[in-house]
Amino acid sequence: KHKAMQEYLETELKARTKEVVAQKELLEVKNRDITDSINYAQRIQQSILPSVNTINKYFSGAFVYYQPRDIVSGDFYWYDKVNNDKFMIVCADSTGHGVPGAFMSMIGTTLIKDICLRTNIKSPSEVLEMLDKDLQSTLNQNLDAEKANDGMDIIVCEIDINTHYMRFASAMRPLIIYKGKKLQYVNGNRTSIGGYSKTAKQFENIGFQLEKGDIIYMFSDGFTDQFGGPKGKKFKIDRTKNMLADVCDKSLEEQQSQINKVFNEWRGSLHQVDDVLFMGVKI
After folding, report:
1. How distant, in Å, are the alpha carbons of 111, 161, 254, 266, 282 from that of 210?
2. Of 92, 98, 255, 271, which sits 20 to 30 A from 130 (CA to CA)?
3. Separation of first and last alpha carbons in the chain
């Protein structure tokens, strides 16, 4: 009886082991297919992001530090020359990250490009007001579906190529300007784009006369919200200001390299909490 029981248990063990191995192999195949699909989506997403060379045609230089959390990103950027020698720069952080965030970023990029190239749009605040309406309409057009509260925090910056006068409007994101050897921190409007709202939102235009050599910094909250350091705390805006104070006199290539280094050293072995986008444009 003992021998029979032992043979039975060994047979069952082999059967279960074979079943587990088969399931493991199936999961590996599915995981590989999903990862391959997301990697392909990443190539599509990156293909619609503009080249830094577009900025270099009109300004002294620029850098874009772009670090998705999960291959594809909810953060996105867009820039191009628009009407009457104006150059428009957009830095945006969509709701979510990974695949859901990437869907939002694709929608946002399409809407932003369409709005900025319209001849009747005269200011960054009008861009945000139109984007808010268009995004709500796009996400809530199916009346049978639950109303979407998805949206984005975003900066729209307009620079006159000839006079270097800058106007910007912002939804929940600050702007930092290196001007006259000093860093200036400027808050935006305390309301996001998108989300269901019964009242129309209004955004303010803020202007600065910039000179050659001044630098504009824009970034998503993925940078300041990253946990790390010796105590596992958030990086926060004060450390960001101090970091920029240390690098703003260096070349843009060195600045991008230092921002990358600071972020990764701060994060250490901790998981990246959100997508990261950090942009710098030098007049």
Report:
1. 28, 11, 22, 32, 10
2. 98
3. 88
**CA quadruple 260, 261, 267, 271: dihedral, nearest 10:** 50
Q: Tokens in use for 259?
A: 């921002």
What type of residue is 10? E
Q: What is the pLDDT of residues 8-41, one digit of tens each?
A: 888 888 888 988 998 898 998 998 889 899 999 9
Distance from C-alpha of 179 to C-alpha of 182, rounded to nearest angstrom? 5
Q: Kindly calculate the radius of gyration of the chain based on its CA atoms and give it in whole angstroms.
A: 24
- Closest C-alpha to 241, from 257, 222, 219, 264: 219
Q: In the predicted model, is pLDDT for residue 49 greater than 90?
A: yes
C-alpha closest to that of 201 among 245, 248, 151, 161: 151
The Cα 14–Cα 123 span in angstroms is 71
Q: Which two tokens stand for residue 15?
A: 């059967």
The closest of 61, 96, 64 to 77, measured between CA atoms, is 64
